[in-house]
Write a structure and sequence with these properties.
alpha+beta; Nucleotidyltransferase, domain 5; OB fold (Dihydrolipoamide Acetyltransferase, E2P); six-stranded mixed β-sheet; 14 helices; 30% helix
Length: 523
């Protein structure tokens, strides 16, 4: 089986897995309590203009103010920009994304209207000229909040349909480069140019190949009605207000992923399956036979082995088939990937063993970056190779493995230290942040002071306070790990302190204490 989509709906969350050749390649999670907002349209109010950053913060009614950069502001701060001749505008590399970090098929690899929307040719103006505090404007979210950062917004709005992406404020026609046939491109361009309203723009999506004029017309009418509804709501509402919310994850999956290249879409719930079938029957009737209900008792993600893969994707260490392994470490500023030979000892010589491990690791790293959705700065520490040609082979293997990744990346060649510096587009929160919380026990440091260190801190504290009182007993309350050490390996140190200060030291274990915490009481 080629590509299969598995949807696991529940009351709390919806999970979507994309399997290629029965291997989990992408995972999307939509939780009702913290649903993503990419693609949503808001009426917001400017709360702060930052000339030094040429940006502004906009209150759209969510927890943190949205970030609006000057390049994302239409000439009249939400109004239509100056006309751009569609004939002069190059075909877009990317099309429309489904919002909320929606999944996109390989055909839709470049479907991201938030990056594809052409910027009008105009004289650059400063943020102070375009916006003022208290001003109201209509914006669309292009990137969800990540970490401590608020969401990013733009005034260049785009509304994705099945075949087209409607850009009401941009005079432009673009076609996905995934449509390679020149005659088909010309047919689609001529058709949309004839059907569109002057001053508006459309991006023709990959799934439009072979589409009839009537299907285009229906998509245009639907998107036009949607835009009119948003405009009417914007007139009535006062900022901050939500004007339009994108489809939920299940229906976005159908809209953006379900194509003829997908062999099967399996849904683990009758009500959700019926809802999806109704949506497909309305908009994609020729694909309704690809939607199937999963009716077995075993949970659907267990049946497909997806739960195990999710658990593996949360681990630091990933084993390679050869016996080597990679270690993935997250920091505040970047992600570090370390490659090790592990149990792999090779057959001939060390250089060959290292080359084979690095080649295997390059493919696995590209897969893990995509599955875990790791973005930002990434440093890969390959095992040092002496031969330049081997370094080139590993670098080429990494680039080839990343070629199928829909997130854009920039890679620098392997340095003399064996390091690869790269950046990967951060579209949404990575899997670790979605499914895990930072460790509160270690106060998000990733480590704690050892029991031995805490023992010696206690000894120093006793020495500081031991002569300040004539009390005969020092009661020390500690974590059980520390208590065991004081009773056993460090017992000589405890007895030495008792003789030095002529006091009895009583040790009490309290499992409710943090390992680094302790309490000294003179009684």
């Amino acid at each position: 089986m080629g590509i299969e989509i598995v949807i696991d709906p529940s009351r709390e969350e919806t999970r979507v897995a994309v399997l290629e050749q029965q291997v989990l390649t992408e995972l999307f999670i939509d939780r009702k309590r913290d649903r993503g907002i990419v693609g949503n349209v808001y009426k917001g109010r400017v709360v702060k203009v930052l000339p030094g950053m040429q940006a502004a913060f906009v209150d759209i009614g969510v927890e943190r103010a949205a970030f609006l950069y000057v390049a994302d502001i239409a000439t009249e701060a939400g109004g239509p920009p100056p006309p751009v001749d569609a004939g002069d505008a190059p075909d877009v590399v990317e099309e429309a994304e489904g919002g909320n970090g929606a999944p996109k098929s390989d055909d839709e690899a470049e479907d991201d209207v938030t990056k594809a929307t052409p910027r009008p040719r105009r004289i650059h103006r400063s943020i102070e000229e375009l916006l003022r505090e208290g001003q109201e404007l209509v914006v669309q979210v292009t990137k969800d909040p990540i970490g401590t950062k608020g969401c990013r917004v733009t005034t260049y709005l785009s509304l994705p349909g099945r075949y087209l992406v409607f850009m009401p404020t941009v005079n432009h026609v673009g076609i996905s480069r995934r449509i390679g046939d020149d005659s088909e491109r010309a047919r689609l361009r001529e058709m949309i140019t004839r059907l569109r309203q002057p001053g508006t723009g459309y991006i023709i999506r990959t799934v439009s190949e072979g589409t009839s004029e009537e299907e285009f017309r229906m998509d245009i009418e639907f998107l036009g009605r949607l835009w009119q509804t948003i405009g009417d709501e914007g007139q009535r509402a006062s900022a901050p207000a939500l004007l339009h919310a994108d489809l939920d994850l299940s229906l976005r999956t159908v809209r953006d992923l379900l194509t003829h290249r997908v062999d099967r879409l399996t849904v683990g719930g009758r009500a959700e399956c019926d809802r999806i079938r109704q949506f497909v029957s309305t908009y994609l009737p020729n694909l309704v036979n690809k939607v199937h209900l999963y009716a077995q008792d075993e949970p659907i993600f267990d049946r497909y082995g997806i739960e195990i893969e999710i658990s593996k994707a949360l681990g630091r260490r990933v084993w390679l088939k050869s016996g080597g392994y990679i270690v993935i470490e997250h920091t505040e500023a970047l992600t570090v990937v370390d490659v090790n030979t592990g149990r792999f000892v090779g057959k001939r010589d060390l250089e060959e063993t290292i080359l084979k491990t690095n080649m295997e690791a390059a493919k696995e790293i590209a897969y893990q970056l995509r599955l875990r959705n790791i973005g930002g700065i990434i440093i890969i520490d390959f095992i040092d190779m002496e031969k330049e040609k081997n370094r080139e082979r590993v670098f080429a293997a990494l680039r080839e493995a990343l070629a199928t990744d829909r997130a854009r990346s920039n890679i620098l060649r392997i340095s003399d230290l064996g390091l690869v510096e790269m950046s990967r587009e951060r579209v949404r929160e990575d899997l670790l942040r979605v499914l895990c919380d930072a460790c509160l026990y270690c106060e998000k440091r990733g480590y704690i002071r050892s029991a031995t260190t805490v023992c010696y801190e206690i000894f120093r504290e006793i020495r500081r306070s031991g002569t300040a009182s004539e009390a005969g007993t020092v009661l020390v309350t500690v974590h059980p790990n520390v208590a065991n050490l004081l009773f056993d390996e460090e017992r000589d140190g405890v007895e030495a302190l008792e003789r030095e200060f002529n006091k009895r030291i009583s040790i009490k274990a309290d499992p409710h204490l943090h390992q680094e915490q302790y309490d000294l009481v003179l009684v």
